[in-house]
Amino acid sequence: MLLLQLLLPLPPVSLPLPLLPVSLPLPLLLLLLLLLLLLLLLLLLLLLLLLLLLLLLLLLLLLLLLLLLLLLLLLLLLLLLLLLLLLLQQLLLLLLLLLLLLLLLLLLLLLLLLILLLLLQLPLLLLLLLLFILLLLLLLLLLLLLLLLLLLLLQLLILLLLLLLLLLLLLLQLQLLLLLLLLLLLLLLLLLLLLPLLLLLLLLLLLDSAIFT
């Protein structure tokens, strides 16, 4: 009996089936896919914003380097003008030009500091503050340059006025009435040119003093 039981085949044993994946409903599956797409889009937008910020920083660095080059050229021109004024012994213009040179050197140092801070990637607020100071100094430099040009133009007009007065005296002695009238008209036009120039010079001096204070 025992031998027969051993020879007979064993009954089949029922094994537990493996766990099948749970089937999600279709709307929930679409919602998950949509969330994944939105996450990918947000990552792409963040990457684009970072690239745009990097491009803006590079452009700002390029502009600062160009500005540095322009300021160096302006420094060379002012040095040449300084030598010319030294030869002509114009003390007031010489002092103004020295002030311009000092301001230009300060601008160059500030610009180099700003480029260094950009390369070191320091906080944005500090960079904006330095940019504001740089723009303010640039405005002051432009005003002083305009003041210097106006003073030079004023000196030229005064020299022209003196020459016309000498010519007027000469014509009075020679009694040439027509030329005398033409010269008087030229003197009147020259005075009309001098008055707005003096007013503009006064306004520039007031604006410079306001910026300094």
Could you characterize the architecture of this molecule?
By secondary structure, the chain is mostly helical. The chain has helices spanning 2-7, 26-88, 91-120, 124-174, 177-212. The protein has one domain (30-212). The longest helix has 63 residues, at 26-88. Mean pLDDT is 71; it is low at 12-22.
Break the fold down into its secondary structure elements and pairings:
Layout: H1 2-7, H2 26-88, H3 91-120, H4 124-174, H5 177-212
Q: Mean pLDDT score, rounded?
A: 71
Spatial separation of the terminal alpha carbons: 121 Å
Task: Please give the domain count.
Answer: 1
| SSE string | HHHHH
Shape by Cα distribution: elongated
Major sheet: size, sense and barrel closure?
none
% residues in beta strands: under 5%
What level of helicity do the residues show? over 70%
- List how many beta strands DSSP finds: 0
The radius of gyration over CA amounts to 41 Å
Q: Which structural class do the helices and strands define?
A: mainly alpha
- List low-pLDDT spans: 12-22
